[in-house]
Amino acid sequence: MVSFRLSYEEYELYRQACAAVEVHSLSELARVAMQQFIQGHNGTMPVDDQLRDLRERVQSLSHEVERIAQRVECHDVAPGVRSAANGSSS
User: Fold this and answer.
1) For residue 90, is pLDDT > 50?
2) Contact by Cβ (8 Å): 18, 26
3) Where are the domains of the chain?
4) Residue 35: per-residue pLDDT
5) pTM of the predicted model, to two decimals?
6) 3-state helix/strand/coil string of the chain
7) How many Å apart are CA 67 and CA 59, to the nearest integer?
8) For 74-90, what is the mean pLDDT?
9) What's the average model confidence in pLDDT over 15-37?
10) How far is residue 62's CA from residue 41's CA, in Å, rounded to a whole number?
11) Which residue in 1, 29, 35, 53 has the most C-beta neighbors within 10 A?
């Protein structure tokens, strides 16, 4: 068990933070904060940074898939490809 002192202002600030992020208690808020602090100092990225990194990667992959799809569509529209698809020769 760990205990620490807070001023009234700190207590109110942390209590409001609990309500804002839907954490059930100051104890839970302290545990989560300590876990994130430790993770950040052990060379692992905090969860928020990991999510941001994943979003950026997914967005990059999405753009790449769109670029490839456009190239495929342009290639399919080429005259030789259209004739071959219709069964006729050029």
Assistant:
1) no
2) yes
3) 1-44, 46-85
4) 83
5) 0.41
6) CCCCCCCHHHHHHHHHHHHHCCCCCHHHHHHHHHHHHHHHHCCCCCHHHHHHHHHHHHHHHHHHHHHHHHHHHHHHCCHHHHHHHCCCCC
7) 12
8) 59
9) 85
10) 32
11) 29
Please determine, for residue 3, whether its predicted confidence score (pLDDT) is greater than 70. yes
**Mean pLDDT within 28-56:** 78
The answer to whether residues 29 and 15 touch, using CB atoms and an 8 Å cutoff, is: no
In the three-class reduction of DSSP (H, G, I as helix; E, B as strand; rest coil), residue 71 is classed as helix
Taking residues 39-66, what's their average pLDDT?
81
Compute the distance between CA of residue 29 and CA of residue 75 in angstroms, rounded to an integer: 55
Residue 76, CA distances (Å) to 37, 62, 66, 73, 90 in order: 53, 21, 15, 5, 15
